[in-house]
Structures are given as C-alpha cells and as structure tokens.
Design goal:
Blueprint (H helix, E strand, L loop, with lengths): L10 E4 L5 H12 L3 E6 L6 H9 L3 E6 L5 H15 L4 E4 L14 H29 L2 E6 L12 H21 L4 E8 L8 H4 L2 H9 L9 H12 L10 E4 L7
Helix pairs in contact: 1-8, 3-4, 4-5
C-alpha cells in the first residue's frame, strides 16, 4: 500500500487566515481539495481570500473569530461543525509576533502575546477536540515556531508563548491520541510574507538570517503548507505530539 497524502473532501479550519502564513495555508489546503473554513477578527478582511480560492476552483467560507474570546471560539467551532456536518482538520495559525526588549515588556504587551499565541491556541484546541472526540477522529496542527526551542533577542514573550504551544501539543496528544485525534505542531523559520518582507528585504537582517539557515534560503509559505498538509493527511496517522520543524536546519546547530 502507498501512503495517503490526500485531504480531498475534508472539512478544515484555518484561524488567522486574513494575511501572511494563514492566508497561504488556506489557499494550499483548498487547492488540495479540502473545504476550508477561514477565520479572522474582521470577517470582511477575508473577502480577498474567499475570492481567490473560488477563482481557483476551491471551496471556502468565512467566520469572524477573535481567539482571545473563549466564548466566541466555542460558538464559531460549533457553527462550523453545524454548517458542514463534521470537523476533520484544524490549523491553529492565529498569532501575533512583534518584538520587544525584555526590560521594556509591559503587562499589556505580555498579556496580548500570551492571550493570542497560547491561550487562544489552547481553547481552539479544546473546542475542536470536544467535537473530534465525539466523532472519534480528527487532525489538529498548531503553528508554533523555531523559536519555541531556541531564543532570539527581543523575543521573550513570543518565544515563551510558542514554547507553551509545544508543551500543550504534547499533553493533548497524550490525552487524545488513543481516541482518534492526532495533534502536532509545525515550527517554521523566517517565512517570506508581505508582513515579513520589510525586515527580510533589509540586506543586513537578511544576511544574518541566512547565515543561520544551513539550507541557504528564506522559507516560503509553500514550505510550511507541505508540512501542514502532511500532518493533516492519513499519511501521518501514527504521528502525534510532535513538533515538525520547517527551519532549513537552523535548530540543528
């Protein structure tokens, strides 16, 4: 038998899909044949994504979701399941990532970073997990980062939040894998997106990043999408509780 990498016909959720990695992941997952429910704080911001997916022959629907609100998370996941009849795949991508020197970190900044990147991811996992446990199957992929296991200057809150994502992924795998849910994380390096372009197009910053990546190039959204689709597919049915790094070898050093 050959491994099955297909997600055609699956019902998939991608949070934080209005821009950046989430936008590209939603496009890739739709192109792979899944029906994609995309979320963002502002539903109207998802209109360009819906149009592009439809133009490419895919299927998608938009939902307004602020992952800082546990009540809204539960409501939206229940609505998506009611609309499509089941929930096969969830990609927890929504996140924030501005840098700040440790001595300048405010309580407000810390709370925003952890509320979105860690609390939001957990309660999305919980809402999806409750539905998937009732079904007896499901795939959850959390978008972590290479800096979940290595530090970077000005990244104290971000690194802490992503390290937490790794740990909650492990614990949920221990609790849920025997009941049909595979839950994993992906850890990208610097990925070229409209949001990262300004820094990555700065020659000095780009040289510093490339010096740390043995593969010799900046990551693309397609690199991340390949890992996510693998973890969402039947080919990864024995893979759970792990972090799949998409970092060109950065953390191998």
């Amino acid at each position: 038998m050959q491994p099955d990498f297909s997600i055609r016909g699956k019902i998939a959720v991608v949070t934080g899909a209005s821009k950046g990695i989430g936008y590209g992941l939603a496009q890739s997952i739709a192109a792979a044949g899944a029906i994609v429910a995309v979320t963002a704080r502002d539903r109207a911001s998802l209109a360009p994504l819906l149009a592009e997916i439809a133009q490419a022959g895919g299927q998608a629907a938009a939902y307004e979701l602020d992952v800082r609100s546990v009540t809204q998370i539960r409501s939206v996941f229940e609505q998506i399941t009611a609309d499509f009849g089941r929930l096969d795949i969830v990609v927890n991508n929504a996140g924030v990532g501005d840098g700040m020197l440790a001595e300048e970190v405010t309580e407000e900044y810390w709370d925003e970073m952890l509320d979105v990147n860690l609390k939001g991811v957990f309660f999305c996992c919980q809402a999806a997990g409750r539905i998937m446990l009732a079904q007896g199957y499901g795939k959850i992929v959390n978008v972590s980062s290479q800096v979940s296991i290595v530090g970077i200057p000005e990244g104290v809150a971000y690194c802490a939040s992503k390290g937490g994502v790794n740990q909650l992924t492990k614990v949920l795998a221990l609790e849920w894998s025997s009941r049909g849910i595979c839950i994993n994380a992906v850890g990208p390096t610097f990925i070229y997106t409209p949001g990262t372009a300004e820094r990555l197009d700065t020659p000095e910053f780009r040289r510093d990043v490339l010096a740390r990546i043995p593969a010799g190039r900046i990551g693309t959204i397609d690199d991340v999408a390949g890992a996510v689709i693998y973890l969402a597919s039947p080919a990864s049915d024995l893979v759970t509780g792990t972090l799949l790094l998409v970092d060109g070898g950065w953390t191998a050093q």
